[in-house]
Amino acid sequence: xxxxxxxxxxxxxxxxxxxxxxxxxxxxWANRGMYLFMLPGVLWLILFAYxxxxxxxxxxxxxxxxxxxxxxxxxxxxxxxxxxxDPDFIMSLRNTIxxxxxxxxxxxxxxxxxxLLLNSIISERVKRAVQSxxxxxxxxxxxxxxxxxxxxxGGAGFLNGLLVNQGFHTIDIMSNPSIFxxxxxxxxxWKDIGWGTIIFLAALxxxxxxxxxxxxxxxxxxxxxxxxxxLPGIRGIVILLLILRLGTALSVGFEQYFLQxxxxxxxxxxxxxxxxxxxxIQSGDFSFATAVGLVRGVVGAMLIFGANWVANRFGxxxxx
Amino acid sequence: MVTTDATPATxxxxxxxxxxxxxxxxxxxxxxxxxxxxxxxxxxxxxxxKAIVLILIVIIMxxxxxxxxxxxxxxxxxxxxGDFILFPRxxxxxxxxxxxxxxxxxxxxxxxxxxxIFGTFFQMLFTTTLAFGLSRRGVPGxxxxxxxxxxxxxxxxxxxxxxxxxxxxxxxxxxxxxxxPGLISAFNLIIVxxxxxxxxxxxxxxxxxxxxxxWHLFWNIVMPLSKAVLAVVALFYAVGxxxxxxxxxxxxxxxxKWPIQLVLRQYxxxxxxxTNASALTSNQPPPPAATTQMAIVVVATxxxxxxxxxxxxxxxxGVLTGAIKG
Lengths: 320, 326
Known about the structure:
CATH topology of the largest domain in chain B: MetI-like fold
Number of helices of chain A: 18
Oligomer: heterodimer
Distance between the termini of chain B: 35 Å
Order of helices and strands of chain B: HHHHHHHHHHHHHHHHH
CATH superfamily of the largest domain in chain B: MetI-like
Largest sheet of chain A: none
Largest interface: A-B, 111 and 118 residues
CATH superfamily of the largest domain in chain A: MetI-like
Distance between the termini of chain A: 40 Å
Helix content of chain A: over 70%
Strand content of chain A: under 5%
Low-confidence stretches of chain B: 1-32, 274-287, 321-326
CATH class of the largest domain in chain B: Mainly Alpha
Number of domains of chain A: 2
Low-confidence stretches of chain A: 1-15
Helix content of chain B: 55-70%
Mean pLDDT of chain A: 86
CATH architecture of the largest domain in chain B: Orthogonal Bundle
Radius of gyration of chain A: 26 Å
Shape of chain A: globular
Number of domains of chain B: 2
Largest sheet of chain B: none
Structural class of chain A: mainly alpha
């Protein structure tokens, strides 16, 4: 570079090595332009990510929208006590945990299995084609996905039309409370299995091919290589995803359940997210609903930290 | 070890010295160069099983979409008769004529298009400026702001406090309520910042010598160099806005301001009669709900299908996966 020495001279202003010798204030003054860039985003962050956190104080109040935050009386932990005795809350909590467990058992490993399958495809063209098809549903909204499922499995949908035409009885899939939990897990897998493979595929391609070669030399067959090379190679990313997943364990998602609640009823489809909406926004019981949301958020954060701690204890890298 | 010396992956140098491995290897080279030399010839049974599973997966993924498309172009009778629909037997545009005649679907499409364009613009503006502000080394406070962002991911604001905030700000029933609360996605921000940070410092320094201020650096150097990643992030934001509907349930009471997804929910999933609301001439029998409903689904899906190839091109390249663990 022709301007080499000059570059260094001038660049010293932002080079960490020299900069650190100067005082914080002069560095801040030198970078005042950068703060202008940060300003809009930081203001947004404070307003829309941290002010609502402070807004959680309504969980300790008996909030009334007409008199506002300041005038609403504080009631301590009353809302939380009420929660334990609320049958609808208990029901939503049970539904949430049941669904989350099903998702963990079936929906979480599904992309991993598909990734292993895709990874074993030798032909790049076939692999690409399959990938571009399985990724697609992730980009459709839940409204569209449910509408499509309705069209195929609904009461007046394709499948029942076919059954009637062939002289069979219709079967109730979309509005059957007893199979609803299985249905939502299946829908989740259909929508997100492809998307979930991306990160696993990236991890799989990072495994050193020489490990496979060495395994072959040692006489390991395909199955053995999967157990001893492939799975250990992606263990880190699986644990990372599990930790992240635990953080949202009590929020299985809102849209899917909200959309189908009319069809199967609250008994089957009420989860904590929808419960908060119906109690808070529909019934106007803001304080109680905020308390539920707060408990969920705190439990989620605790689960993340806890799982991360456990992962670290077992010598894994974890999230942080 | 023998294997570490042999260069892997390239078929031509695949002298593993092992007869049982080398033999099938020679045959495979003609069929496709992709198979690593150490891999044994696949078991035909397993190959067939794999192929069947893949074909099944593809069918399961595509069938609902094809069925919806076919239904939307079908005539009422074919849908009623319940025949197997993969291709409409008597293709017709009746359903589309009904929904495009005016009324709520057209308005909702306009709302969604407008929201997507303006919303994505503001999201990109806030995301890129913040990412740029955080991308240069030696700026005190950067760490603190990153911590704020990380914290907002760990403790996402609850639904009710967010609703109360939007209400306090007087944004209920306004379009900004649908964009402002989700203006910056932490995930996208990290991707963009990561990309900005990888721009060589020398480039920035030499521009500074030429007298460029921060704005010039941002607009004339950093942004043009990041076109690809910015395009992906913008597409992700756009898809997000186009697909959003629940925020409209929360914040928008006025049905004339509903985005297409919410209209879709109302008429398709809740089965409200579209024909009553839209301007259909009364002497004409209304097209059946099923085909009209599916036409709305198609109309709401097509924009996604249009941008999908662009999206896919980038995220498979690993633009995004690298940023997940930041």
